[in-house]
Amino acid sequence: MNTMTLWHISPGEFAALAAAALLVGFSKTAVSGANTVSLAVFAAVLPARASTGVLLPLLIVGDVLAVVTYRRHAHWPTLWRLFPAVAAGVVLGTLFLVWADDAVVRASIGATLLLMTGITLWRRRAAVQDDEPDAVVTRAGRVKARSYGVLGGFTTMVANAGGPVMSMYLLSAGFRKLGFLGTSAFFFLIVNVSKLPFSAGLGLIDGRSLLLDVALAVFVVPGAFIGKWAVKRINQLLFERLVIVATVVGGVQLLLP
């Protein structure tokens, strides 16, 4: 990674990154998956490969804040069921990043954003057909967990975009709001921390990128507190519509030459 490019950021670009970091914190304590907008902003301002390395530590900061907030509501049997498949997806994503150059990663992030938007829309349309919570212990439930786990691991490694995949899985498993937030908080903290050596080995994280993270992390914290305050007050339907529109715009922008 050409880390020098991280220092050629205009005040306007830094403001965009700061707003995206604020949204990272908000998404971790309020609306999981909303940070796909942050992903689009980071990939637009920074080189695509570099953006994934800069964003990962900020996601971990948000994960820690979410765990502190919702630690009592995690469902560990679901987490243990997902982790093996997610690990396989992370390995596949790492191999992809070894092969892919910046242009391919940029296009892949854009395509991933559009794919995640499609999954979110499908989830909303099929919500009334979701399984009962105990369906995840059946054979079909295990197959579903493995499928979502591999896709979630791959998308989170390549583009830090596993949120919508896991959101869809947890909702289909019948989780209520607090159980959803607590389980996803521990899930992404463990998965994102496990990605650190892979990202560092690929050259996506180094001293200079971490210094940029330090400057941006201060914006994650207030975002998390805003999310905690808003989670019981937010108009979920309107917010999801705004996220979907912003994600589509970001994904199309990344796919353009």
Automatic annotation (TrEMBL):
Membrane topology: Multi-pass membrane protein
Transmembrane segments: 82-99, 105-122, 148-172, 178-198, 210-231, 237-256
Keyword Transmembrane helix: yes
Alphabetized InterPro entries for the sequence: TM_pro_TauE-like (IPR002781), TSUP (IPR052017)
GO CC annotation: plasma membrane
Cellular compartment(s): Cell membrane
Keywords linked to the UniProt accession: Cell membrane, Membrane, Transmembrane, Transmembrane helix, Transport
Subcellular location, principal: membrane
Superkingdom field: Bacteria
Family: Belongs to the 4-toluene sulfonate uptake permease (TSUP) (TC 2.A.102) family.
Protein name: Probable membrane transporter protein
Annotated organism of origin: Streptomyces triticiradicis
